Amino acid sequence: MSQSEAPLCLPPKPLGALPRLPDGACDSHFHVFEAGAPLASPRSYTPQILTIADWQLYAEAAGIARGVLVQPSVYGLDNSVMLRAIASDPQRLRGIAVVAPDISAEALRELDAAGVRGIRINTRNKAGVALDAVGELLGKVAALGWSVQFQVRAEQLADVAALEHGETPLVLDHLGFIRFGEADTGTRLDALRHLLDRPNIYTKISAPYRLTASADYTDVGAAITALAASHPHRLLWGSDWPHTELWDKMPEDGDLLSAYETWLPDAQVRRQIFVDTPTSLFFGR
Question: What is a single Pfam family found in this protein's UniProt entry (predicted)?
Fold first, then answer.
């Protein structure tokens, strides 16, 4: 598949001085890649090869203690790059895998032993697992205490709301991909708030650059501040490093981290979002 069909992402900007996150902070959403690993075809993008060693440099600069790798769509159902990354630092890392609906219980147990703590449903990218697979997968992952993570379009929040998930944690990537500054933004935010009212539903307050045309993400930041006031126990932070699917503008990591300091001024709330909630969800064992 040519890069014109699946364009090459921009690389992240060189690391400068970064604000330090709360002690014990967890990056709940990042991706890594590996030279020579087969890429899915078709796919939505071609990644820069940024490895777990590259993320570790970012983590060291920001004071990140732990991380949760999320299987990127470009590897389809082949979780091996992610699993090798976890194996390089198994005390510090966990993973969110992409699996087929008919995966066996034995295969899931093997992933669990390797540090996987959830599965990903992705309706926004080619090579992702569709929403209609959830019904078959929920019972399988519930037995392991895993979460189900959703990269869905904002109009699919109602579909997530309709799921019968018992006590299985459901996690929405990137504020449910609500587009800020559009006519339906308020309605979508209300739908997200209603979801967060339920036990065991969470959202990542990550990737503001994907959600708005505002250069400084002011509208996204205002929503994050409001959600932190109403639902602090339902929020997770993730870097979305290395910021895939960007082709014309790349954010500065320092600017992003500084923005969260502004949006989340309360130290106790910041600790809940950056440390306590991800520790509970992903590092209980």
Answer: Amidohydro_2
Residue 82 C-alpha from the chain's centroid: 14
Mean pLDDT of 210-231: 96
Question: Closest by alpha carbon to 94, among 26, 149, 33, 145?
Answer: 26
Whole-number Å distance between alpha carbons of 28 and 118: 12
Q: Which amino acid is at 257?
A: L
Element (H, E) at 148: strand 147-151
Considering only CA atoms, give the Rg of the chain. 17
Strands 64-70 and 170-172: unpaired
Assign 153 a pLDDT band (cuts: 50, 70, 90). very high
Q: In angstroms, rounded to a whole number, what is the distance separating the alpha carbons of residues 152 and 176?
A: 6
Q: Residue ranges of the domains in the chain?
A: 25-282
Of the candidates 194, 251, 261, 248, which has an alpha carbon nearest to the alpha carbon of residue 221? 261
Residue 213 burial (CB count, 10 A): 11
Cα separation, 238 vs 215, whole angstroms: 20
Is pTM beyond 0.85? Reply is yes
In this prediction, residues 239-247 reach a mean pLDDT of 98
The encoded tokens of residue 99 equal 């699996």
Of 27, 29, 146, whose CA–CA distance to 92 is shortest? 27
Report the C-alpha gap between 261 and 239 in whole angstroms: 14
CATH for 25-282? 3.20.20.140
| Beta-bridge partner residues of 8 | 46
